[in-house]
Amino acid sequence: MKFKFQKHVTLEESQGQEEVTKLGGLRRPWTIFRGRATEILNWLRKMLVIRVITLPPSTIHLINRTLFIAACFLFAAGIVLWTRRNILKFEEETVTKVNRYMFGITREKAQYIEQFIQEIQDYLGLLARKPFSGEFKKGQPLPYNDYAAGEALLEHVGGRVDSIYRMDKKGVVLHRIPHRNGIIGKDFSKAPGIGYVLKNHKPYVSEIFALSPGAIGFYICNPVFDEANFLGLLSILINVDTFGRSICHIQAGSTGAIWVIDDKGLILSHSNPDFIGKNILKAEEDTFADFDWSEFEHIVRRMTDGEEGHGVYHSMRRTDKTTEIVKKAVVFLPIKLGDQMWSIAMTTDYEEIAAPVKRNTRNNFLGAALMMVIVGAVGVIYSRSQKRKTELEAIARSAEELRISHDKLKFEIEQRNQAEKAREESESNYRLLAENVLDIIWIADLNFRLTYISPSVTRVLGLTPQEAIGQTMQELLSPPSLEMAMKTLVEEFAKGQEQKEKSWARTVDSEICRKDGVTIWAETKVSFLYDSKGTLAGLMGVTRDITEKFQLQQQLLQAQKMESIGTLAGGIAHDFNNLLGGILGYASLMKAKLRKDHQVFSYADTIEKSANRAAELTAQLLAFARGGRYEPKIISLNSVVDETLEIIGRTFDKLIEIDVHLRDSIPTVEADPGQVQQVLINLCLNARDAMPSGGKLNIETDHETLTVEQAQRHAEARPGSYVVLSVTDTGVGMDKETVQRIFEPFFTTKEKGKGTGLGLSMVYGVVKNHGGHVSVSSKRGKGSKFKIYLPASGKSEMRDASKQPAARGGNELILVVDDEEVVRSLAKDALESYGYTVLVARDGVEAVDAYRENNGNIGLVIIDMVMPRMGGRETFLKLKELNPRVKALLSTGYSRNGKVNEILRTGVMGFIQKPFQLEELLSRVRTVLDTKTSA
């Protein structure tokens, strides 16, 4: 007869039980064992067709137990294999995570280095466009603003920059910040990177080179141009150790470290300071000479080739008592700096990475062993429980299902509570951010009407959130700003629809009117809002007040514009002075040769007076261009005001009330008293013309000290102590557009024939020439206020009682050098009229030849400063080579400052400014001739 097995749990039942015992993706050991064991038993039953006619019940039970035990061992083997697979997978994931973490830190530091170098190059580009980078000579004092610009760069980069050099087009150092006398004049054309910029006129980051034992650095160079003319370069010397210290201290875990090398393997940053400046392979091999460094050499070769990657190598480590071999994990990536390439790497002990893997392996095997013990125990229990009734199993299964459902429901409730709590916390954080941020956060609907706005609107616009909500953009923005904003939004929305992109943000600058009527400039970042169906629902933006930034930009543009106009005006006035020199000089010469009752004498006198008036106009142009006559003295501004009041008090209409407030004990200033008085007269005349029906004119003096923060509000100001002259009127006032143009030459709002447009231009030029600046505030219908800031001197006031000696002639031989024929002819005729013998030359080359031919006989050389072929300075130096005791008088249409003072310091004994009077020429010539010289 056919033997039947006892009833066992079927495969379908085991699968049902398995599903019942699932909880959050986890299964109980009992359910796992029972399900898998039953699957194996049923499979064996299908594979083995046992036909036994007569077997005792004990044999049948033995067969069942044997099959079950075999299934248990198969399951145990599966657990071991599964555990090993999990261990390998965990190890791979751990190494990947560590590498990703190390790559993140390394890339951050690489970006830090690249951004640092880029920031320095940006600052160099900015300095290259400032007067600091203009054409000037070695040893010339560096203007304060320019020195401050360099100092600001050093302060900004926090000590990471060693020094800043300004070199000419031959690589010779003209200036250094911080200043160091020993370096000025040195030739750096052979220094790393300098030669490249001198040859190619392009920015360059140099190779690494040794600064001193144990210190290395490199140059960042930027060419300097005056339009298309190459003037030289700006170079910044950076000590690698200055930023290396901020890199090498970073660690990954307890054994990680970062180091940086260049494309030749030279160490730029390392946790071991003794390695800095050495080749990394040589440094390691010198430390452990007997070790095989081939793995490490392969890593370094990949780094110097500019690769990005990771790897493993073996290294040596010396502890207090022993030396051990350690396995290292490394990640590396390149750093590109122009034509140069560095590489940064981060290493850590592989044992530190493997520690969690070992713990996981131990825990997995312990868990597997425990599982097998449980499986064995459960197997015994299971084999003994086969006789239980099916009803009990069904009850147990129902109870289990009920418990799982309860646990699942409880778990879902907890998850929902946690999500609700997280949502409330998120809303609280967003609300806290919106209520405390300084910028305005707002939301508007499709009609551009505000539906939400943050409380910061009160600080920026003076409106409460309740007042602002409901207002439209049309009510807040100026018409031009509104038009621009609308145009931008429409264009960007159309572009987003075409490209099917909804994530968009655009920054728009606009003019906004505050509640008090004041207009501010704001920067707004706007983005579109969409509902859950993807339909456009409104706008969201963040608005920031940039009024101060905008005003500074406008002041800077205005200063640059005035500088350009000044250069043009100075050139025109200089050439015009040469022409006036001939007219004025010959008119004076004619008057000197005629009797006063002669008819031609009156003609000559009229020509001389007209030329003098024209000279006054050119003087005002030169004053604006900071090239006029300039004879500084230590003076009191209060004294200048008192003297000026005597002039204007007699000429001003009685309808104008003059109110004067002079502060006692103000510091003195170093200034030209005539020019300062002219500044005050021009301001008072301007105020008088602004009050045709009368008004109040207020003149004040004061002493102010500008901080760095205060100076930053004015593009032309710098911190320091100032004496302030204020002139205030109650006249018609000016609008913004007029205020921006009042200092331009020939710009005037007066009727034709009532003003030249040079008065305020002269004010601007004189004040700038004295190192000060002008502040203007005005409102149409309210009046205007001009504040003149002059640097305080603090020295005692000086009074010049010297008088110009009377003009007289002589019989010496004089050489006149000028490229203008009318100036040469005038000087020759005038001097010969008073007994002198005169030779003339058109430029410096002819002058040197003439002096060489008459060496020993020429008593004085009158030299023009600007000439073709050879300028005034070069001419004088050539003449000094022929005769160290040569006497020279410098003649120019520019003032006595800048290049003029530089030439005078070379030994030129006198200076006369064109156009000059006959008496002035004769007096200066006689003074220089009578001055004794030493070899």
UniProtKB/TrEMBL annotation:
Entry EC number(s): 2.7.13.3
Catalytic activity: ATP + protein L-histidine = ADP + protein N-phospho-L-histidine
The Response regulatory domain, residue ranges: 813-929
Coiled-coil region list: 409-436
Modified residues (4-aspartylphosphate): D864
Record keyword Transmembrane helix present: yes
Annotated Gene3D superfamilies: 1.10.287.130, 3.40.50.2300, Histidine kinase-like ATPase, C-terminal domain (3.30.565.10), PAS domain (3.30.450.20)
Sorted UniProt keywords: Coiled coil, Membrane, Phosphoprotein, Transmembrane, Transmembrane helix
Annotated ranges, domain PAS: 426-497
Transmembrane segments: 62-82
A GO molecular-function descriptor: phosphorelay sensor kinase activity
Domain Histidine kinase: 571-794
Domain named PAC: residues: 506-558
Record bears the keyword Transmembrane helix: yes
Database matches in NCBIfam families: sensory_box
Protein name: histidine kinase
